[in-house]
Design goal:
single chain; mainly alpha; 44% helix; 0% strand; flat
Length: 77
Amino acid sequence: MKRLRISSLSIWVLSGLFLAVFSGCATVEPYQKGNLADYTMRSDRDELASVMTSHIQFSREASTGGEGVGGGGCGCN
């Protein structure tokens, strides 16, 4: 049988990947969830930024709508 030879670089890469994947998870306690539901954490709290984001999306995709109850700009609804 041939032995599989693993270089030290691949060991470092695999251990770094392992640490990056498994150290990025955080547990949120129930008493901390109030901080995450704060008004400042909302993405739509600034109306001008929401309008500008919709304008940028319309300019790039050449369609409008699709973010509310109605459908997209393709006319398929």
